[in-house]
Amino acid sequence: MRHLMSPLDFTVEELDKLLNLANDIEKNPEKYAHACDGKKIATLFYEPSTRTRLSFEAAMLNLGGSVLGFSSADSSSAAKGESVADTIRIVSCYADICAMRHPKEGAPLVASLKSSIPVINAGDGGHQHPTQTLTDLLTIRSLKGRLDNLTIGLCGDLKFGRTVHSLIHALVRYPNVRFVLISPEELRIPDYIREDVLKRNNQDFREVVRLEDALPELDLLYMTRVQKERFFNEEDYVRMKDFYILDKAKMKLAGPDMLVLHPLPRVNEISVEVDDDPRAVYFKQVQYGVYVRMALILTLLEVEVC
Amino acid sequence: MLNVGQLNEGVVLDHIEAGKSMQIYRYLKLDKMDCCVAIIKNAHSNKMGKKDIIKVECPIDQLDLNVLGYIDHKITVNIIKDARIVSKKVLSLPEQLVNIITCKNPRCITSIEQGLDQVFFLADPEKEIYRCRYCEEKYRSMRRKS
Is some CB atom of chain B closer than 8 A to the CB atom of A102? Predict the structure, then answer.
């Protein structure tokens, strides 16, 4: 039995297989409509999340399965003081697979150690969010046709943004990927990513402050939100939150094939006037999130569809 | 030079960084063992200037010496039997530490989940970096930290 804790749990070959399956689901959804008949997913969300929880639930419903779970710690037995280990032992008796989001880092790993069903990490604090990374990889591969030979701009909060860190981890495994790290001085990529991941892998990267300087050379721009909840000081947040705003004028500096991705929710960093630009694919990305979660559920449940 | 009697069976931990012996005493859980222990602080050392030494009289298998690799793998471990040094144990950084150190990250699940072992794995032997198994918070080996 396998679990998914980190995007690196899958080898490049396994990842290819998973993304191929997701693309097949996209093309032939009816083929998979009853693949999980009679199966149940438990969505154990100890903190609120709209998109991720609904995406998992939509994925299971699309496969013919059903859904149970809770959407906040208050409505679960955690409010009574039950441990993660006990909760998962009980949920293992009710469901066939589980997606867990928890504010504490490592909680899904603790669950996986005690579980008799596959556990998917649906986000654990600022630590990992592997299904977002799988979503990003599927979006890039589907729309660009490859995961290698790319120049990727990562823009915004590169210090606290876990999606950016996970994406870098996943993409350094592919040849000839260049990163342009675009952030204000205060929100630069952490040392451990720069030293332990980028430099150790001899990765080609550069750090810039101005988005305009990077745009012309990018195949892909991954925008992120400056997250209010990561700041201790309101003043710092206010100063940083509108540092980057991607608008129509800036999009004119980009190439005709540059794609714009965003893990969402977006606040001010992408102006709504960009939404109609064919290069803006962040809402398509949400749809790919459902396909990749369907593929993941099938893979972890070892369901073969002929 | 202070003289401490000879051991019949046990270990002599030599070349401990001066002042570190009490930490090692606690990590080896010597306070919980019913055996004869001598701690020599600030002994003269040609190599180090000053050093600490610990002598423990007990059957060798009662001590978990692997933890010493985390504290300082440059400590010399002499194994004594029949009042003679029969071998010297070469220390290395242990691959895993269980319930030796605790994770200080307040966002880590270990801060609230009861009955959970504190587990750290060796992430970078060269830089002597350990990471918490659950949240991957970084910790340096004791030697590098000081």
Answer: yes
CB contact under 8 A, A105 and B108: yes
ipTM of the complex: 0.87
Range(s) within chain A of domains with CATH label 3.40.50.1370: 7-128+289-300, 131-286
Domain B96-145 has CATH 3.40.50: no
User: Regarding the domain delimited by B10-89, which CATH topology (the fold level of the hierarchy) does it fall under?
Assistant: Alpha-Beta Plaits (3.30.70)
Residues of A serving a catalytic function are 51-52, 80, 101, 129
Question: b/e for A73-97, b at 16 or more Cβ within 10 A?
Answer: beebebeeeebbbebbeebbeebbb
Cβ A192–B111 below 8 Å, yes or no?
Answer: no
Q: Which residues of chain A does B140 touch, with a Cβ-Cβ cutoff of 8 Å?
A: none
Give how far the C-alpha of residue B64 lies from the chain's centroid of Cα atoms, to the nearest Å: 9
Give residue A100's pLDDT band: very low, low, confident or very high (50, 70, 90): very high
Searching chain A, which residue's CA lies closest to the CA of residue B109?
A: A104
Q: Where are the alpha helices (DSSP H) in A181-268?
A: 191-193, 211-214, 234-241, 248-251
Say what angle helices A51-62 and A130-144 make with each other, to 10 degrees: 70
What fold, for A7-128+289-300?
Rossmann fold (3.40.50)
Which CATH number does A131-286 carry?
3.40.50.1370
Angle between helices A282-300 and A12-27 in degrees, nearest 10: 110
Distance separating alpha carbons of residues A45 and A99, to the nearest angstrom = 8
pTM of the model: 0.88
Contact A59, A134 (CB under 8 A): no
Given B107, B110, B113, which is nearest A125 (Cβ)? Answer: B107
- Lowest-confidence range among A70-74, A132-136, A251-255, B55-59? A70-74
Closest chain B residue to the Cα of A103, Cα to Cα: B107
How many beta-carbon pairs under 8 angstroms link A with B? Answer: 49
CB-neighbour burial class of residue A207 (10 A; exposed 0-12, middle 13-18, buried 19+): middle
Token pair for A90: 């009980």
| B135/A83 touch (CB, cutoff 8 Å), yes or no | no
SS3 (DSSP) at B57: strand
